[in-house]
Task: structure prediction
Amino acid sequence: MSVHSEIKRVTTHILQEMKNRGEKISCLTAYDFSMGRIVDAAGVDLILVGDSASNVMAGHETTLPITLDQMIYHASSVVKAVKRALVVVDIPFGSYQGDSTEALRSAIRIMKESGAHAVKMEGGSEIKESVVRVLSAGIPVMGHLGLTPQSIYKFGTYSVRAKEDVEAQKLIEDALMLQECGAFGLVLEKIPSTLTKKVSESLKIPTVGIGAGPDADGQILVVHDMLGINKEFKPRFLRRYADLDSIMHDAIANYVKDVKGKDFPNEKESY
Result:
């Protein structure tokens, strides 16, 4: 029996119920129709159309270059494939920081043009006005604290965040602020697991961790990383569930060999 026929669509309310009863939330990224279909059918609760598309789909070094139009393109492709998971879309760098009117405009475009269910925004107190403005339009917002890749040039490094007391305290305050504003959930990226535990226990809303230890209410990985399509990225927090790079390489090499050797197509494969 497929997962779709027995489980109704995941909503922000269902994620909240999962946290309340201690059920962990499974999350992965997806950026296109085919991958979205596979990820959704496998039973993932939340699919993030991440601005990590900038890295894995477009080959950029950071998440900064991806545009709002490109994010909408990726999101609409994924939404068409998904029957069960909640689809959350990153508002890309430069489309919400420092201007709450632009933040609202960006979020409305994502929701209208892609059909997604929610947006995600990086940062704490500095983006409060934008978060409030987007929420006031009835658009669900997911927060993102810790290592916020859109601020990579400010940090200057992708190493673990909030190890110092001052930064840890600000993260806790920002998390409570985002909850108070009405965010439905929060991604915690690359922070000490003790801090994840503290934040997750002090919040009513669910937390989703990446490189943040086992105590978040859910976990997320980039799908290309966990499937072993992208082999260059080897952080400690990544568990590889497959080696698709090798499988795909061998399949394509065999195809090339069969074409060159005049073995493909054979008589049965011809009309």
Remarks:
- The beta strands are 25-29, 46-49, 86-90, 118-120, 141-146, 185-189, 207-210, 218-221.
- DSSP finds twelve helices and eight strands in the chain.
- The domain at 3-240 is CATH 3.20.20.60 (TIM Barrel).
